[in-house]
Amino acid sequence: MRHIMSPLDLSVEELDQLLDLANDIEKNPEKYAHACAGKKLATLFYEPSTRTRLSFEAAMLNLGGSVLGFSSADSSSAAKGESVADTIRVTSCYADICAIRHPKEGAPLVASMASSIPVINAGDGGHQHPTQTLTDLLTIRSLKGRLGDLTIGLCGDLKFGRTVHSLIQALVRYPNVKFILISPEELRLPSYIRDGVLNKQQIPYKEVERLEDALPELDLLYMTRVQKERFFNEEDYVRMKDFYILDKAKLELAKPDMYILHPLPRVNEIAVEVDSDPRAAYFRQAQYGVYVRMALILTLLEVKVC
Ligand code: NCD
């Protein structure tokens, strides 16, 4: 039995196979429509979510399975003081696989240790978000045709943005990937990623504050929102929240084939006028999230479709 806590829980070969499977699901959805008949997915969400929870549920329903779960800690026994370990023990009796999102870093790992079903980390605090990374990789590979030889700009809240942490860890495994880290001083990448991943593996990167300085060089721009819920005080959030706003005028500095990704939800960091630009790929990205989660569920449940 396998759990997915970080993108590194899959080898590069396994990841390639998973993305191939996701592409096949995209092309031949009917082939997979009953693959998980009789199986149940539990979604245990202790933190708000739209895309991640609904795309997990859509993924299981598309596979012919069923879903159960809760979408806030208040509506679960966590409100009565139950531990994550006890909740997953019980969930293991009801479901075949589980996706869990929690505000505390490491909570999904604690759950996986007490679980007798595969557990997927659907986001733990400011730490990791591996299934968003799978979504991002599928989007990048589908749009650019490759995962190596790319200069990638990561912009916004690089400190608390868990999607960025997972994405960097996954992308450094491909050849000739360079990063431009675009953030205000206070929201720079945490050292466990900057030193522990980029410096340690001698990955080329630079840190800049102005988006305009980075735009002309980029093959991909990954925008993120400032993570309001992880700030200690409202004042700092208000000061930071509109630090970056990508609009049509700024986009003129970018290459004609520089795709814009965003895990969503968007707040103000991408002006709505950008949505009609052919390079805006964030809504397509959300669709890819369903295919890749279908592929992940099939893989973890060891369901083979011929
Ligand atoms: C992201 C998350 O939850 O970390 N959202 C998502 O799952 N697509 C990004 C965010 O909330 O800013």
Describe what you observe in this structure.
This protein is an alpha/beta fold and 306 residues long. The protein is built from 11 helices and 9 strands. The chain has helices at residues 12-27, 51-62, 84-94, 107-114, 130-144, 162-171, 191-199, 211-214, 234-240, 248-251, 282-300, and strands spanning 40-45, 66-70, 97-102, 119-124, 150-155, 177-182, 205-208, 220-223, 259-261. A 5-stranded parallel β-sheet has the order 7-6-5-8-9. Helix 3 crosses helix 4. The mean pLDDT is 97. The structure holds N-carbamoyl-L-aspartate. N-carbamoyl-L-aspartate (NCD) binds next to helix 2 and helix 6.
- Counted by DSSP, the helix tally is 11
Q: Which descriptor suits the 3D outline? A: globular
Helix content: 25-40%
Class by helix and strand content? alpha/beta
What percentage of the residues does DSSP assign to strands (E)?
Answer: 15-25%
Which ranges are low-confidence, i.e. pLDDT below 50, for 5 or more consecutive residues? none
How many extended strands?
9
